[in-house]
Design brief:
Length: about 280
């Protein structure tokens, strides 16, 4: 006799305990994906037997998760700042930590003005699309060096009907000629190539170029900061996500580049996560 849906979910959660921080949630999401049922429908139908097709689909998905493949890649979506984004192994999975950057931008920038904001290394489009969704008057531009990532971001923009966001292929600010913006936001790669966290099975599934930067993880942050004064309007701001131990180095970069009001802000876990600076204008050395 086939096991019912509740039994499948509980058994899967027990098996996932060694690979997931939230095994109950992972088991439920996988079962939703395998059966096409919502969370509420799973509760209502929990005592019915799983069909052979449902069980086979669920076993396939569960096996992928047990090998360490991230849940977001298996089900193809992830929640980020009021949006549901589609993701693929071509892009980094948006993290809750990055919502700190979005919240800071929303708090620090004029909500009613038609500001021009660029998101560098957009990946799935998470930051640019979250800002466009919350601030429809802003003009959002997003760049990425990866054509595959831009395809993912543009697909998300169309699906979410945020069609005013523009996308350009290119490396950081080099793709933008002499354009200037009211704000630059970015979550660039910032993990040291020798960081032990890269041994984590889940990170092994994500694009390494979106995670790792040379010079102790600071190389791309430094490239962005050096170019920022050439692309910020007077009064413009830069907001950068970085590693929790990189705040002092990033603040030093921002100060050396001539930015003022430099500060580092903490994420929801209390870790130093986003550093900001203000460009007053003037001569760029």
């Amino acid at each position: 006799m086939n096991r019912n849906l509740d039994v499948l979910r509980r058994e899967a959660a027990a098996r996932l305990a060694d690979v997931s921080d939230a095994p109950d949630i992972d088991a439920r999401r996988l079962l939703e994906h395998a059966t096409g049922l919502s969370a509420t429908q799973l509760i209502v139908n929990g005592q019915r037997a799983a069909s052979d097709d449902e069980r086979q689909r669920f076993d396939t998905l569960l096996t992928r998760r047990l090998t360490g493949e991230p849940l977001a890649y298996i089900i193809g979506t992830v929640g980020f700042h009021e949006l549901i984004l589609q993701v693929s192994p071509d892009v980094l999975i948006p993290r809750p930590d990055t919502e700190t950057l979005v919240e800071l931008a929303l708090a620090r920038l004029d909500a009613d003005a038609p500001l021009s904001v660029v998101d560098l290394g957009t990946g799935s489009g998470a930051i640019a699309l979250a800002l466009a969704h919350a601030r429809p008057r802003w003009q959002l531009l997003a760049t990425d060096a990866s054509f595959a990532a831009l395809d993912c971001a543009q697909h998300n923009a169309r699906r979410l009907r945020l069609d005013k966001v523009q996308f350009i292929q290119g490396q950081w600010l080099s793709a933008l000629a002499t354009q200037r913006f009211d704000a630059i936001v970015s979550n660039p790669p910032y993990i040291d190539p020798h960081d032990r966290h890269l041994l984590d099975a889940a990170l092994g599934h994500e694009p390494r170029h979106a995670l790792v930067a040379e010079d102790g993880g600071l190389a791309d942050l430094r490239r962005i900061v050096r170019a920022a004064p050439y692309h910020l309007r007077p009064g413009g701001r830069i907001l950068l996500e970085h590693g929790c131990d990189q705040g002092p180095a990033v603040r030093a970069m921002l100060g050396k580049a001539g930015l003022d009001d430099v500060a580092t802000h903490h994420d929801l876990g209390g870790r130093p996560r986003v550093s900001v600076g203000l460009w007053h204008g003037g001569r760029v050395d």
